[in-house]
Amino acid sequence: MNIEHDNIYPDCLSITRTVEVGGLTKSQLIQILQQHFILMNEYGERLFADDNFTTSAKAYRMETVELTVRNLGLTKGATTAQLFNKASQLGLGLCPLELAPYLRLEYLDQPEGNSGKSSQLHQAPYGSITIASEPLTEDENFPKGFYLRRINGVLWLRGYIADDQHVWEPDDHFIFCHQKKTLNK
User: Fold this and answer.
1) Is 35 helix (H, G, I), strand (E, B) or coil?
2) Where are the domains of the chain?
3) By CB neighbour count within 10 A (0-12 exposed, 13-18 middle, 19+ buried), where does 47 fall?
4) Are 173 and 123 in contact (CB under 8 A)?
5) Distance (Å) of CA 159 to CA 29, 130, 132, 146, 152
6) Which residues, listed in sequence order, are joined to residue 60 by a DSSP beta bridge?
7) What's the distance, CA 70 to chain centroid?
8) d(CA 85, CA 95)
9) What is the pLDDT of residues 46-65, one digit of tens each?
């Protein structure tokens, strides 16, 4: 899974996935994540516990696109608002928050995220993939969404905090959904 860094979406190499979403409650999702030995950090648990994080009773499929900030034409990085705006201009949409646990369950072969590179404070960890989604609240101290990571062989569904001024690096990976490409089951 190599992503080219020189071209802008849709004229870049990107990774598309079709993910089945919905049909389970939050407690059922947590149970399945645990059965697959997928861990969550405190921020991920806070997202799951929030009443504003809802799940769909009906299953549906979504087409997702994984690419880097650079692949959106943002070669110097961007704030979350700039990133989401540029993605929208290119025909990509935000994902429902509930996509993250389903995507984590689908993507069990994620490459190792440590690879000898140390993470920097206030930056997306090396090897992580952030799911682009609308935050549940404007509270700067509440998690904004989820990211996927494999650390020392362990799969994680982690929540993260980032304020409006946070600048994502050009090589940070994001997953967006195709606008108007929700597939009915």
Assistant:
1) helix
2) 15-184
3) buried
4) no
5) 16, 9, 12, 4, 18
6) 21, 184
7) 16
8) 14
9) 999 999 999 999 999 999 99
